[in-house]
C-alpha cells in the first residue's frame, strides 16, 4: 500500500569532489510504501546521492530530509530507521555470519535477540551457514547476508544501491524475490538503485532518472511508461508481406528495425490485436508478437534527450 | 552506544590473528632473553661491570629477576611500538579497506563515538600488552633467577637499589611505559583515520617514531628547541624511576607532554573522521 507520507525529500542536492561536480541539482521525493527506482547511467551521481541520503557524504548545497527530519539534528533517529546496502555488502571476513549480524545489531539502535538473528538468517536462506566465516561466502551469499543486516533492526526505509551487481541470473532472481517479499509481506519503503532496468520495471512503482548529476524525470513507473508507445518484436513467416500490410494499414506505426525474420515497431498497444488479426486474415503465420522492455527504451530515449 | 561499540571493537581485535602476533612475538623475545641470560648472563654482566671492578667489589646475586626484568624492558620498549601499531594502525583504515566503514557509518552511532570506541579498544589492547610484558618480564625472571638488589648503570654511574625498594618503581615505570605506548597507539589510530589501507598507517607510525628518535639523538643545535616536545624524547621516561633520587619533576613533565600528544591525536582523529566523506 502506497501512502501519502513523504519519507525522503531531496531538493537541489549538489556535491563536488575537487573540480568534479558529481551531483549538480538532484531533487525527488519518496512516499511511504513506495518501491522507488533510482536510475541513471554510470557516473550519473546515483551513488553520491545515496551516500548523501545515508550521511556518508555531506552535500555542498541543497536540502535533504528523511522522515521529515534533517541529519543536522536527528542523525541517530533517522539512521535507526534505515537499513542499507551501498554498492556491495562488506563484512568482517574473519567473523562468522552470525557474529557479523550481532556486531551490526548491537549498534543498530534496536534490541535484537539471538533468536531474531537466527530467524533473519533463515529468512535470507542462510540458516545453515550462520556459524561459517564470511570469507568463505560467495558474492550472492554476501548480498543475502547484506539484506539480513538491513532488516535486522526492522527499519521502515530500505536503501539498496546496486544490490544485484555481480550476481549470476539465479542470484538476481533470489534478490528480486527477497525485495518483492519485503514489499508485499512487510510493506517496507524501498529505494532501489540498479543498472538492471528490467528489475526496476518489475519491482518499482515510482522512479527518478538522473543524468550528469541532474534529475531528468520523476514519476509513477506505469504512468511514465504508458505515455509511451509500445515497442513490439513481430516475428512472422513472411516479413516482406508483413511489412507491406503494416505500411498500408498501420501508417502511424514506426518501423524501428527489420531482420530476415522479425520487425521491431513502435505501435500503440490498443492496435496490437488488430495487427494480429490482420496478419492472420492474410494467411501470414505469426510466430511471436512480444513487447520489448519498455523501461529500457524509455531510459535510453530519456537519457539521449 | 559507546560501550556497545567498544565491546564490538574488542571482539574484532580478539578475532584478528595479527592481535596474537604481538603477544606471541613478545613471549618468544622474552623467553629468548631469559634463556640467553641463564646460559651466558655472568659473562655479559662481567663485561659491563669490568670497568668498575678495580674500585668496587660486587657481592651477592648480581644477576637476579630484577636485573633481568630491567634488561628486558630496556631492550623491548623499542620494539613494542611496532607490535602496538600493527593492531591499532588498522582499526579505522582496515575498515575502509574492507568496506565495512560504510556499514558502520550508516548505523545510528555518531562518528565521534566510532573513533572514541576504537581509541578505547586500542588502549585496552595496549594495556593488555603492557601487563603481559610486566608479567613475563618480572614474574618469569623472578621465578627463574630469584630476587635481589638491582644494579642499574646510567649516565651518572652505577645506582644500586635495594630489593625492597624496587617493586613500586616497576609499577610506576610500567605506568609511564604504558602512557608512551598509548601515545603510539593514538598516533597510529590518528593516521589510520586518513588512510584507506591497513599498511600505510602502520608504516607511517614507525617512520615517525624512527624520524623523531633520530632527531632526538642528533646533537645539532637547531633541533634543541624541538627535542623536549617530541613524544619520542619522553618514551624512555619509565627509566627515571630507577634513578636515585627519582627525578619526579622531569617525569611529571614527560607525562604531561605524552598526555598532550594523546589529546592532540584523538582530537585530530575525531575532527578528521567527522569531516571525512566516506567514498570507499
Fill in the keyword field for this structure:
heterodimer; A: 305 residues; alpha/beta; four-stranded antiparallel sheet; 11 helices; globular; B: 280 residues; mainly alpha; two-stranded antiparallel sheet; elongated
TL;DR of this structure?
The complex is a heterodimer of chains A (305) and B (280). Chain A is of the alpha/beta class.
Explained architecture:
The complex is a heterodimer of chains A (305) and B (280). With 305 residues, chain A is an alpha/beta fold. In chain A, 37% of the residues lie in helices and 28% in strands. Chain A has eleven helices and 13 strands. Chain A has helices spanning 46-53, 71-79, 97-106, 114-123, 139-151, 169-186, 197-203, 221-226, 239-249, 272-281, 294-304, and strands spanning 6-17, 20-31, 35-39, 61-66, 82-85, 157-161, 189-193, 206-211, 214-220, 230-236, 254-258, 262-267, 286-291. In chain A, strands 5-6-7-3-8-9 form a six-stranded mixed sheet, sandwiched between helices. Chain A has a four-stranded antiparallel sheet with strand order 11-12-10-13. In chain A, helix 5 packs parallel to helix 6. Chain A is globular and about 70 Å long. Chain A starts with 5 loop residues before the first strand and ends with a helix. The model of chain A has no long low-confidence stretch (mean pLDDT 86). By secondary structure, chain B is mainly alpha-helical. Chain B has one domain (2-275). Chain B contains ten helices and two strands. Chain B has helices spanning 2-15, 17-49, 65-76, 80-88, 93-98, 100-105, 111-145, 167-193, 199-217, 248-275, and strands spanning 150-154, 157-161. Chain B has a two-stranded antiparallel ribbon with strand order 1-2. In chain B, a hairpin with a 2-residue loop joins strand 1 (150-154) and strand 2. In chain B, helix 3 packs antiparallel against helix 7, helix 4 crosses helix 8 (167-193) and helix 8 packs parallel to helix 10 (248-275). The longest helix of chain B is centred in the middle third of the chain and has 35 residues, at 111-145. The model of chain B has no long low-confidence stretch (mean pLDDT 89). At the A-B interface, helix 2 and helix 3 of A face helix 1 and helix 6 of B.
Amino acid at each position: 500500500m502506497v501512502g501519502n507520507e513523504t519519507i525522503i525529500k531531496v531538493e537541489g542536492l549538489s556535491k563536488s569532489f575537487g573540480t568534479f561536480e558529481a551531483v549538480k541539482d538532484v531533487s525527488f521525493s519518496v512516499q511511504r510504501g513506495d518501491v522507488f527506482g533510482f536510475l541513471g547511467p554510470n557516473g550519473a551521481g546515483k551513488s553520491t546521492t545515496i551516500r548523501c541520503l545515508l550521511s556518508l557524504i555531506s552535500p555542498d548545497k541543497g536540502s535533504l530530509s528523511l522522515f521529515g527530519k534533517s541529519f543536522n539534528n536527528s542523525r541517530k533517529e533517522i539512521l535507526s530507521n534505515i537499513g542499507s546496502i551501498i554498492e556491495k555488502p562488506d563484512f568482517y571476513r574473519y567473523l562468522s555470519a552470525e557474529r557479523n549480524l550481532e556486531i551490526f545489531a548491537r549498534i543498530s539502535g534496536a534490541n535484537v535477540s539471538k533468536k531474531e538473528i537466527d530467524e533473519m538468517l533463515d529468512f535470507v536462506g542462510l540458516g545453515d551457514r550462520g556459524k561459517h566465516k564470511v570469507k568463505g561466502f560467495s558474492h550472492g551469499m554476501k548480498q543475502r547476508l547484506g539484506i539480513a543486516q538491513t532488516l535486522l533492526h526492522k527499519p521502515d526505509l530500505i536503501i539498496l544501491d546496486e544490490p544485484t551487481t555481480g550476481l549470476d541470473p539465479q542470484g538476481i532472481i533470489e534478490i528480486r524475490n527477497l525485495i518483492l517479499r519485503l514489499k508485499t509481506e512487510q510493506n517496507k519503503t524501498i529505494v532501489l538503485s540498479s543498472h538492471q532496468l528490467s528489475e526496476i520495471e518489475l519491482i518499482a512503482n515510482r522512479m527518478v532518472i538522473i543524468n550528469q548529476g541532474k534529475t531528468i524525470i520523476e514519476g509513477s513507473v506505469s504512468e511514465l511508461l504508458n505515455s509511451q508507445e509500445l515497442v513490439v518484436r513481430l516475428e512472422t513467416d513472411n516479413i516482406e508481406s508483413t511489412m507491406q500490410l503494416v505500411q498500408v494499414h498501420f501508417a502511424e506505426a514506426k518501423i524501428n528495425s527489420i531482420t530476415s525474420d522479425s520487425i521491431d515497431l513502435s505501435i500503440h498497444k490498443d492496435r496490437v490485436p488488430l495487427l494480429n488479426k490482420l496478419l492472420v486474415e492474410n494467411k501470414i503465420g505469426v510466430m511471436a508478437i512480444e513487447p520489448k522492455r519498455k523501461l529500457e527504451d524509455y531510459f535510453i530515449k530519456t537519457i539521449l534527450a | 552506544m559507546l560501550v556497545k561499540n567498544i565491546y564490538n571493537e574488542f571482539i574484532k581485535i580478539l578475532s584478528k590473528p595479527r592481535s596474537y602476533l604481538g603477544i606471541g612475538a613478545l613471549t618468544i623475545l622474552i623467553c629468548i632473553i631469559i634463556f640467553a641470560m641463564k646460559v651466558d648472563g655472568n659473562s655479559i654482566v662481567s663485561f659491563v661491570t669490568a670497568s668498575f671492578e678495580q674500585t668496587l667489589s660486587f657481592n651477592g646475586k648480581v644477576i637476579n629477576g630484577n636485573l633481568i626484568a630491567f634488561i628486558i624492558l630496556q631492550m623491548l620498549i623499542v620494539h613494542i611500538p611496532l607490535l602496538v601499531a600493527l593492531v591499532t594502525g588498522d582499526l579505522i583504515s582496515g575498515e575502509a579497506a574492507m568496506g565495512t566503514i560504510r556499514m558502520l557509518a550508516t548505523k545510528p552511532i555518531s562518528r565521534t563515538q566510532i573513533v572514541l570506541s576504537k581509541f578505547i579498544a586500542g588502549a585496552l589492547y595496549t594495556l593488555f600488552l603492557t601487563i603481559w610484558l610486566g608479567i613475563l618480564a618480572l614474574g618469569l625472571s623472578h621465578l627463574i633467577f630469584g630476587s635481589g638488589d638491582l644494579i642499574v648503570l646510567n649516565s651518572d654511574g652505577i645506582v644500586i637499589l635495594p630489593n625492597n625498594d624496587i617493586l613500586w618503581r616497576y609499577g610506576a615505570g610500567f605506568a609511564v611505559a604504558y602512557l608512551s605506548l598509548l601515545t603510539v597507539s593514538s598516533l597510529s589510530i590518528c593516521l589510520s583515520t586518513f588512510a584507506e589501507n591497513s599498511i600505510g598507517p602502520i608504516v607511517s607510525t614507525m617512520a615517525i617514531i624512527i624520524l623523531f628518535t633520530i632527531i632526538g639523538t642528533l646533537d645539532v643545535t637547531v633541533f634543541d628547541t624541538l627535542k623536549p616536545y617530541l613524544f619520542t624524547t619522553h618514551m624512555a621516561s619509565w627509566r627515571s624511576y630507577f634513578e636515585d633520587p627519582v627525578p619526579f619533576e622531569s617525569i611529571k613533565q614527560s607525562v604531561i607532554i605524552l598526555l598532550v600528544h594523546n589529546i592532540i591525536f584523538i582530537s585530530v582523529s575525531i575532527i578528521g573522521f567527522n569531516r571525512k566523506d566516506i567514498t570507499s
